[in-house]
Amino acid sequence: xxxxxxxxxxxxxxxxxxxxxLIMVVTMYVSIPIPNTNGAYINAGDALVYTASAFVxxxxxxxxxxxxxxxxxxxxxxxxxxxxxxxxxGAMALIATCIMKRSGKFTPVLAIAVGGAVMPVGYFLYExxxxxxxxxxxSVPMNLIQYVGGVVIGALIIMPxxxxxxx
Length: 167
Known about the structure:
By secondary structure, the protein is mostly helical. Helices cover about 80% and strands about 5% of the residues.
């Protein structure tokens, strides 16, 4: 491995570590608990999941999203959701990254809207397995609010940063 390839991998590893930690902290501390649920909350972490997709990208961005979000679940005491979160947030980032990469133009709003749609569906399916469909349905409205909030906040972060980074 040449020096430049090593430096690039080291750079990506460091960037991914910082982004994972940022996703974890924002998910944990920029959140609103939802009353009468099993540890559910609305948070701004999804916006950073999309930011990792846009600016870290590739498998590194997917890893940031999955690990940072799952660690937040573990650390706030909702470890039962960590396996689902790992898969769901990773899938959200992967889909958003693929759309951004394949489109001719940078289309973050479309990419994060499509990628984010995995979240309410994924948690509904997971909670159906855990608690049954009737109980899982109770969480759908809050997951939809989380979905919309993540897309809006994500777009508000990504669009201006993209303009600055282009310059």
